[in-house]
């Protein structure tokens, strides 16, 4: 999964040295680790908050919070920890696969929508949002919400995704605040 965020960052330049990133559903930590390297957390410049309901091994330069990001208080807790609003909120979450394609799609879309609403609370103006979605046709409401709040919204399927995979990523940039 780390290859995917690297590829997306090389195209969209999410991580600027000294920036602040929030990784929702962060375990096992690949995306948070890449964010920490690219934001310069080892030099005490950038900040990465990794949030998950599962445990995660410590990663240098990453502040882990064992927390359900759906908790109403979660955005405020992260803001308090970081001391600022985020430049990017990212999510590589997918619901546990049931084997029923439509159910899997709906459950993963629900996670992406919840992540977007978290981002609306946590991002600073000009910030970005990146989340995994599945192809399947029910993303219209999410896209409308994102288009109302961001200057640019698009989809990307990283080259590192398997060809047969239905996963895509929605990228939203220039948060209007």
List the helices and strands and how they pair.
Blueprint: H1 2-12, E1 20-24, H2 30-39, E2 47-52, E3 62-66, H3 74-82, E4 86-91, H4 101-122, E5 123-134, H5 140-149, E6 150-156, E7 167-175
Parallel strand pairs: 1-2, 1-4, 2-3, 4-5
Antiparallel strand pairs: 5-7, 6-7
Helix pairs in contact: 3-4, 4-5
> Number of folding domains?
1
Give the H and E element order. Answer: HEHEEHEHEHEE
Corresponding CATH superfamily:
Vaccinia Virus protein VP39
- State the strand order across the main sheet: 3-2-1-4-5-7-6
Biggest sheet layout: 7 strands, mixed
From the N-terminal CA to the C-terminal CA, the straight-line distance is 29 Å
Average pLDDT for all residues: 91
CATH architectural arrangement: 3-Layer(aba) Sandwich
Overall 3D form: globular
In which range does the helix fraction lie?
Answer: 25-40%
Regions with pLDDT < 50 over 5+ consecutive residues?
none
Class based on secondary structure composition and strand pairing: alpha/beta
Counting DSSP H or I runs of 4 or more residues, the number of helices is: 5
